[in-house]
Amino acid sequence: MSKEADELGLAAVTEKAELDHAGEPLSERDLQLLQLEKELNQKLDTELEEAGDKLLWPKALYFIIPNEFGERFNYYGVRPLFAKYLTRMVGVTSAQGAIYVSYFNAMAYVFPLGGAALSDSFLGKYWTIVSLSVVYAIGVILLAVFSIPGLLGYTGVDDKGQQLLPLISWFVPVVLIAIGTGGIKPCVSAHGGDQYLTHQRKGMDFFFSIFYISINIGSLISGSITPIWAQNTICFGRTCYFYPYIMCACVFTVAALIFAFGKPFYRIVPARGQFLPWLAVKTALIGAYKYFKASPAERNAKKHYLEFATEAVGADMVEETRLLGNVLFAILPIMFYWMVYDQGSDEWYYQYDLMTPASGLPAETFSNINALLIIIMVPALVPVYRWLEAKNIRLSILGRMTIGFSFMCISFLVSAILQIYVIDAFDPTDLDENGYCKSKCISGWWQVPQWVLLSLGEAMLSPEGLKFTYMNVGKQMRAQSASFWLLMSSLGNIITAQVGVGIENNSSFNDYDSVKAKASPDNGISLPAKYFLFTGLAFIANIWFWAWGLFVFEFKDQNATMTGIEGWRDRRRRAKNPEIEATIEVEESSYDEKKTEVAA
Question: 116, 124, 168, 468: which has the fewest Cβ within 10 Å?
Answer without folding.
Answer: 168
